[in-house]
Amino acid sequence: MRIPVSKASRLVAAISTLLLFTSAAPADVTDVSPTPSTRTLPLGIDASGSVPVSLRWDVTTIYSFPPAPSVVTSTAGRFRLGTRGPVIATVSTQVMASVPPFPFGVPETVSVLENLVVPASVISAALEHNAPRILYERTFGDDRSITTATGTVSLHLLSSKSGEVEALRVDLHFEGGAALRVVQRGATLRPVADIAYQGAGRVEWVWEVTTGGSSAGEPIFRPLHRERRRLDAAGRTRIRGPMLPTAMTGLRLVRLRFVDPRARFTVEPIRYLVRDSGDDESETADIELLAPEPGAVLEAETLFSWKEVPGASVYVLQLLERGSNVQAGSNLASGDVEPIESKPRTVLATDPDWEGALVVGLMIDGETTRASLEPSQWRHLLPGHGYRWRVTALSAEGELLSRSDSRPLRTGDAPTPDTAPSD
Description:
This protein has helices at residues 5-23, 120-128, 375-378; strands at 27-35, 38-41, 51-63, 71-74, 77-80, 87-91, 95-98, 108-118, 133-142, 145-147, 149-157, 165-174, 180-184, 191-199, 201-215, 218-231, 235-240, 250-260, 270-275, 285-286, 289-291, 296-298, 304-306, 314-321, 347-348, 357-365, 370-371, 386-394, 400-403, 407-411. By secondary structure, the chain is mostly beta strands.
């Protein structure tokens, strides 16, 4: 059968169009538009120095071959210092939205909502590099697309008025980087404050320590050292505090309080425990650990628990490198308990009888026999890594009452929620 030339031409054109559609991407994300596209950060409104930002991502997609896409997704967000600057932090939270049915070849725009929290560490990095803004970007695709598109939000740092200083973030710790120390009577101990700030001018602060008493359940602080200093050019500074009292055994809290100008947030105190060097640890009974079980996988919701010890004023929970030589009769390290760093590392204890490497430690009130890790402590743990944990009970005078054997556990292969690297 012969096909007329005109019909043959139309047939060839139809086949060519079909082949064109078949070889093209079934769907494309063509544009990502954030709202707001620019935001000035109201710094210093949160105790941690973090700033919440509500975003809406308008994602435009078009499909050239059925079926149509059903969802648009972005698996992670990125913070950059400038357009071509390095990625300084990532947000591992996935955001997505469903795509309603829409006609073939017609662009469709859907909105994806995100409640972003700009970490204090990102703001500090911008200040350290004198960067006037931070870029936050996300790349979106759909379940049918080959091509993707990226949207960017410009986050500008709020400048203080001339002559005013505002603290944005304060990291309080002891020399050596720990937020908790166990020391012997008469030991030398100093606090340190790393302060990120904006503006320039004079600042007055006072170091305070608890007296051991309380009022209505709240600890009573007394002034230890007051200082006034001029801070120039927004950035970071380190303040070394005074020698802390260690002549009496017991638990003490230390804090830094801004007098003028006042900070918009309260700086959380750090703790140290003074023990008598003559404490005998050889005849203490073991604490019975309840959970988690040996070999358990450590997760965000994991709750550590143990049996109560009569007379305990404080419990110390420690996570150690799994290879540590930790025996039932080993001493409680008189050293760092919780390192303050933005990346995982270990801190070696100073006790010569303890060969282990201390990773994370926290102090728990004696009326509580359970605890879980905070996100700030998770950042010291490596994914897919083995650790051991143990608990020590101490009296109000710092005397060792009891301790547990160490029990093995491990972290999962992927980071837990809210533990993606922040620096």
